[in-house]
Write a structure and sequence with these properties.
By secondary structure, the protein is an alpha+beta fold. Helices cover 25% and strands 36% of the residues. The strands form 2 sheets. A 5-stranded antiparallel sheet has the order 1-8-3-5-6, with helices on one face.
């Protein structure tokens, strides 16, 4: 069995962004040489997400609006977490959008459903953050 590990780094210009990282994960898979197995991708920060969905700008705008309705960034004083920080909304948004995805690896490819793409969801950006890619198989 082969075990492959890599960290991807992100530093967004905005507080909140969605970035399609599918090609970066596919590059990891090629580098691993694994043909059959499982690929895990997870955010290594509690204010960022990894999720799978459609790469469609309208949908991403809908995600942003929906998340802001559920957990508005401001006023900061509405959250008990914001005693020393101002990122309570980012923790809540991350919880909704998820920590990780697992994708099957079949014949050396990520075995996606139609339109599935992998995204990094940043909710408290403008600083360096990591994503872990772990692939195991043979
Ligand atoms: Zn915090």
């Amino acid at each position: 069995m082969i075990s492959y590990r890599k960290e991807l780094w992100f530093n967004t210009n905005n507080r909140r962004e969605f970035i399609n990282i599918t090609h970066q994960v596919e590059a990891c898979l090629r580098e691993s040489g694994i043909e059959e197995g499982i690929c895990l991708v997870n955010a290594m920060h509690i204010t960022a997400s990894i999720f799978i969905n459609d790469d469609e700008s309208g949908l991403h705008a809908d995600f942003e609006q929906w998340l802001e309705r559920l957990a508005p960034e401001k006023p900061h004083s509405q959250y008990r977490h914001n005693g020393y920080e101002d990122n309570a909304d980012a923790h809540l948004k991350r919880q909704i959008m998820g920590r990780e995805v697992v994708v099957a690896v079949t014949k050396g490819k990520l075995d996606f459903g139609t339109w599935e793409q992998i995204f990094y969801g940043e909710f408290d950006g403008k600083r360096k953050k990591r994503v872990l890619v772990k692939i195991i198989g043979e």
